[in-house]
Write a structure and sequence with these properties.
heterodimer; A: 516 residues; mainly alpha; globular; B: 493 residues; 3-stranded mixed β-sheet; 19 helices
């Protein structure tokens, strides 16, 4: 490697945040000069983020843990970024998801936002770099700052939608701010008790300090704040509206990433900041969380059943998936935690895939109420193929990735003897199957009324009208939306086959040895 | 026992999947069907190429991916797997020919979709046959459920929609709610899911848990059609007849009993099951299914539905054979997979041929049809003999072994079940043949119609499988030898 590359590569942990952030500003600036430059800037920002992430993925896979001190200041005074195998994995997922969606969304973003497109690109990249920073940083206050960067961008991104979007964004802003405030108060308590903001440093201090009511309070505040941020039942209320009314290009990335990063933060705080004994020793907190997740799964699934449009139905599936991960993690055993962590990755991929498929349908049909989905298997076979694969992943059918995280989650539940959670997961599979087959049936068996007579070959061959449906002309989404979607669908299969390697290399080393 | 590591089983599995893009992108019908035939012949050739090695007692292994610690996605070809793969892949060739006659004869819509999903279904079937562990088998089992859904729902009308819904609800519901958690429980207890002589749970679970696991695995693979999870099969008859013939008389349903077979013998183990007396409980479920379904078959007027209920009963013969847990019974059960496959596919081909030639679906309309379609009805007669279990058709042999199995296990009640059900089988099949040949045709049934034999693409396949039924009686050696070997591999002898 030549010296300049060498120099750069050392800075990967911070470049993954700074490169997108700076190029995001460039994208906004491009709006004043020439709008055409905005997309390349945003693309370049996320691409450099992805390269940095993959670079760290390779390094951590070799057993290295990357620690970066901002401006050379050592903790506890300076801000440190710390990347282990699991954070590298999640960073790669974030950047890959964001980049793929950026490419897929370009056409609709330029069309929807016209002169505001550069602003959308800039906010989009800010949002992603905020998320990446949350994953990378080891400083709990810096984490709050990055959380706000991501959140503020998210409010604006959602607010750019039509109709009720601004109102949904406001609702999200209120809930999000409350959640963030809880977290910030937790940080304050920790700082009062330990005088430090660095996770590793705090963990050492807490180890020596022993049980402490201030820390217990801090723990409760941080967890409550994060639950609101991740839209865990019953504080999920902001999510369905925000994601339903946001522009598709925004929803895709947000549904795939926001909740997942909050869960990552929860896992990281419990595993590497607070003493494990605080979370799991009494069993009361953990048990309560698993039951909360169990109820959340049923509640989310039933609410999903009641929806009348596709995108909105999916937003409730996001709520259900959050409960999978919360419950799996709080089972407290290795299988459950592995399941939760693996599902962060898998759920990001399959949520992106399914929302992209719906975005394609909405781009073509202009709507996504169930009654607008008729005949789709004929008119959009490729998008529907990808939709079927992502549906199978969400139901949990092998060899898609969703099956394998469910495998770990359920075996964790069996090991822990937590039958309520096991039954909830199995029931969720069935309910998801019902949800998706409802869509598949409409798309397969029904034909849009207006196509009778005109667009069909029906009248040419009246003698076999009893043979199936009239043929519809194919009307697929544009190729720039279709190819990323197909790549994602194939990724869902590939991730399934790679489960063993992912768990061995990136997830298992990140779970502390005392978790059995 | 010799083992060999080879990619051949994976290729045999993938060849029909790989044909799908070619089938979809073909410019005309003949090119499309050429791809189906190419895939079918290559698949059969690959399966056959493994036969000599396996017949010498060897097994062939291939690992696709390491996914879960101790549980890879892996393939293993042993005698039982090869037996099933030989049956399915050989009959796919015949069915492909028949499909051409049937689908073109009726000018069906969406034939490309039909042939594509047919090919995918065969990949899944071979995948089940060659699975080395429960996870791999579950993977292909689910793949088969989804791949056959568009075939069941082929007509895309209201009936297709309702039937498809019932089909997927039963199959997916049972597998997700019963088989999947049972599999996970075994994994948590045993740390492995490999099919092993003697099972993997011995010593890890008590007999109560073993009973629950056995029932969950038996009913979880609902494709085996054990009552009360059988009613998806009659409704699946709404599919085009080649689908009913190959998938719902051979591939799909046999996958069900194959999975039950593997899960009971390879995962739970014949020893623990017979020690705990669990075999008998499953045998009782199977016996009830055999008798009740035969009685229900008697009252069906729609030919395909009668055949479907007959299939439900015949599948439970195989389950009964497994549940008796004795060598002869296991051998009989395996032989019955082959014998029933040839017999029942012939019967379905005939039902489809009658429909193509005359549009008739109901038995009451088929009086005297034997005079107009003599070849078809002769084939029907041979198929019926085989399913009833009468010489000179192959079905006699497998039933013979099942009967010996009941004696071996000393449970005479099940012998009675077999004999009574044979009488019932005769009672619902032979009148059809009798009426077709010996009752004078009621002319108002055939007014102004000149019904003659169905097109050659239908007629030759059904003749071939009918002859197959007879050949299997006189020359059952390859399957006989495979079943014998498989029993020794399963019993750990």
């Amino acid at each position: 490697m030549d010296p300049i590359m060498m120099e750069f590569s050392q800075h990967s942990p911070v470049l993954i945040v700074m490169a997108p952030f700076l190029l995001g500003m460039a994208a906004a600036a491009a709006g004043w000069a020439n709008r055409k430059w905005a997309f390349p800037m945003a693309f370049l920002g996320l691409l450099s983020g992805l390269i940095a992430a993959i670079h760290m993925l390779i390094k951590t896979a070799k057993g290295e843990i990357l620690v970066y001190h901002m401006a050379g200041w050592l903790p506890p005074f300076g801000i440190a970024y710390r990347i282990d195998t699991f954070s590298a994995l999640i960073l790669t997922a974030i950047m890959a998801v964001a980049l793929i969606n950026l490419v897929a969304s370009r056409a609709s973003a330029e069309k929807d936002f016209t002169e505001k497109a550069p602003a959308w690109y800039a906010l989009y990249v800010f949002f992603v770099s905020g998320l990446a920073g949350m994953v990378a940083t080891e400083d709990i206050f810096n984490l709050y700052v990055l959380l706000e960067i991501a959140s503020l961008s998210a409010y604006a991104l959602i607010g750019m939608g039509h109709n009720r979007a601004p109102f949904a964004a406001l609702n999200y802003l209120l809930m999000g701010t409350i959640g963030a405030s809880f977290y910030l108060m937790g940080v304050a308590y920790i700082y009062i008790a330990t005088g430090s903001l660095n996770m590793t440093d705090i963990a050492v201090i807490l180890q020596e300090m022993g049980p402490n009511p201030t820390i217990t309070m801090a723990f409760a505040l941080c967890m409550t704040g994060l639950l609101a941020k991740m839209a865990a039942f019953p504080v999920h209320g902001w999510l369905p509206n925000a994601y339903t009314f946001a522009p598709d290009a925004t929803t895709n990335v947000m549904a795939a990433l926001t909740t997942k990063v909050s869960i990552y933060i929860m896992i990281r705080l419990v595993l590497s900041l607070f003493p494990l004994s605080l979370a799991f020793d009494t069993g009361i907190i953990a048990d309560a969380m698993v039951w909360l997740a169990t109820i959340g799964i049923f509640a989310g699934a039933f609410m999903a059943l009641a929806q009348k449009s596709f995108k909105r139905m999916l937003t409730y599936i996001v709520v259900v998936e959050v409960a999978y991960m919360v419950g799996g993690f709080w089972l407290g055993n290795r299988a459950g935690m592995t399941g939760a962590m693996l599902h962060i990755l898998n759920d990001a991929a399959m949520t992106l895939c399914v929302f992209m498929a719906v975005a394609n349908i909405r781009a073509r049909r202009g709507a996504d109420a169930f009654s607008d989905l008729k005949g789709l298997f004929q008119t959009m076979p490729f998008s529907m193929g990808a939709l079927v694969i992502s549906g199978l992943a969400i139901i949990g059918i092998p060899p898609t990735c969703g099956f394998f995280s469910k495998w770990y989650l359920i075996s964790g539940g069996i090991e822990a003897g937590h039958w309520g959670f096991v039954i909830a997961l199995l029931s969720a599979s069935i309910i998801n199957a019902i949800l998706f087959f409802k869509v598949f049936e409409i798309a397969f068996f029904e034909v849009p009324a207006e196509t009778f007579g005109q667009n069909s070959r029906e009248h040419e061959s009246d003698h076999h009208t009893h043979h199936g449906l009239p043929s519809l002309a194919m009307a697929e989404a544009r190729i720039s939306m279709l190819i990323p979607l197909i790549i994602m669908a194939l990724t869902l299969l590939a991730l399934g086959f790679m489960t063993g390697g992912i768990v061995n290399l990136f997830i298992d080393p990140a779970i502390p040895g005392q978790v059995l | 026992m010799e083992t060999l590591y080879s990619i051949t089983p994976l290729l045999a599995l993938l060849v029909s999947l790989a044909a799908v893009p070619a089938i979809v992108s073909s410019r005309n019908m003949n090119a499309r069907e050429a791809w189906t035939f190419a895939a079918a012949f290559i698949k059969f050739g690959l399966v056959l190429s493994m036969a000599p090695f396996v017949l010498q007692g060897g097994t062939i292994h291939f690992t696709i991916a390491e996914v879960i610690p101790g549980v890879p996605i892996a393939l293993k070809v042993d005698a039982f797997g090869l037996l099933f793969a030989l049956v399915s892949s050989s009959l796919w060739i015949v069915t492909s020919a028949y499909s051409i006659g049937y689908m073109r004869g009726l000018d069906e819509h969406s034939q490309t979709r039909y042939f594509s999903f047919f090919a995918i279904s065969l990949s899944a079937t071979i995948g089940v046959a060659f699975s080395a562990n429960l996870l791999t088998m579950y993977l292909f089992y689910e793949m088969l459920s989804f791949a056959t859904y568009p075939l069941v729902a082929h007509n895309q009308d209201h009936e297709g929609r309702v039937s498809g819904r019932k089909y997927i609800a039963y199959l997916l519901g049972a597998s997700v709610l019963l088989a999947f958690p049972a599999m996970l429980y075994v994994y948590v207890q045993a740390g492995t899911l490999d099919f092993t002589a003697g099972g993997v749970v011995a010593g890890n679970v008590n007999s109560g848990t073993l009973l629950v696991l056995a029932l969950m695995l038996t009913f979880g693979f609902a494709k085996a059609g054990i009552m009360p999870l059988h009613s998806w099969l009659p409704v699946a008859m709404v599919a085009p007849t080649p689908v009913s013939a190959l998938l719902h008389a051979v591939a799909v349903v046999k996958v069900g009993v194959f999975c039950v077979f593997r899960a009971l013998t390879g995962t739970l183990g014949t020893g623990p099951l017979s020690d705990a007396g669990i075999g008998t409980i499953i045998a009782i479920f199977a016996s009830i299914t055999i008798l009740v379904s035969s009685l229900m078959a008697l009252s069906q007027d729609e030919l395909k539905r009668r055949l479907a209920f007959s299939t439900v009963g015949q599948l439970s013969y195989i389950v009964l054979g497994v549940a008796l847990l004795t060598p002869a019974a296991l051998q009989g059960a395996m032989m019955h997979i082959t014998m029933h496959a040839f017999g029942k596919i012939t019967l379905f081909f005939c039902a489809g041929a009658i429909f193509v030639a005359s549009g008739k679906k109901y038995i009451s309309q088929m009086k005297g049809i034997g005079r107009r379609m003599p070849i078809t009805m002769t084939a029907f007669f041979i198929g019926a003999l085989s399913v009833i279990g009468l010489p000179p058709a192959g079905g006699f042999l497998s039933k013979w072994y099942l009967v010996i199995g009941t004696l071996e296990s000393g449970q005479i009640a099940f012998l009675v079940v077999l004999l009574v059900s044979s009488i019932l089988n005769a009672a619902y099949f032979l009148p059809i043949v009798y009426r077709a040949f010996f009752c004078p045709p009621e002319e108002d049934l055939y007014k102004n119609e000149s019904i003659k034999e169905s097109p050659p693409w239908c007629l030759y396949p059904l003749s071939i499988t009918a002859i197959g039924c007879l050949v299997l009686f006189f020359y059952p050696q390859p399957f006989f030898r495979l079943a014998q070997l498989a029993v020794s591999q399963i019993m750990g002898g």
